[in-house]
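Thread: "does anyone have the structure for this chain?"

Original post by V.I.:
We have the sequence but no experimental structure in hand. Need at least a predicted one for the grant figures.
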Amino acid sequence: MFHQANQRFGTLDLIMLVVLCGTVSSVVGASIAGFTHDTRPSRARNAAEALALQIRVQHESAVATISPATAGDRGPASVEVPPLTDGQMGKDPWGRPFHYSVLGSVSASQPVIAVWSEGPNGKVESDVAEFDEKAPMKFHFKGDDIGFLSIYASKK
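Reply from O.Q.:
Generated one for you, tokens below.
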């Protein structure tokens, strides 16, 4: 003679089920969120850094070409590639061109170079006219603009 146990779903069982479901869903949700993380901002910053290096090399080459020590009797008009100043080049991860600007004196052999993307919203929110040569580290890209400042550090 066996007694059949009273098998009802009680309040404590319901609480344990809710806690268990919440724990499982948070673990699964966190792992899924890690897979869907948008890498475009970090790719944009890395690409901006690479473009800044390319612009620096081209700018230094152009400035060296027109410097009085290497130009001889030729004037700057005979130089085929002038130093870069402002423009656009390449494509950011959102498919729009990167902007660049050589800040400070264009004839300086080691200028500060800013390269930035408009970011996800596609609007230029940074104003390189606010750049101060005396305090280059105080310049920040605004809004969701993503960029890189290439500041030449002389080796001593």
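V.I.: this helps a lot. DSSP finds three helices and four strands in the chain.
O.Q.: and The two ends are 95 Å apart (CA to CA).
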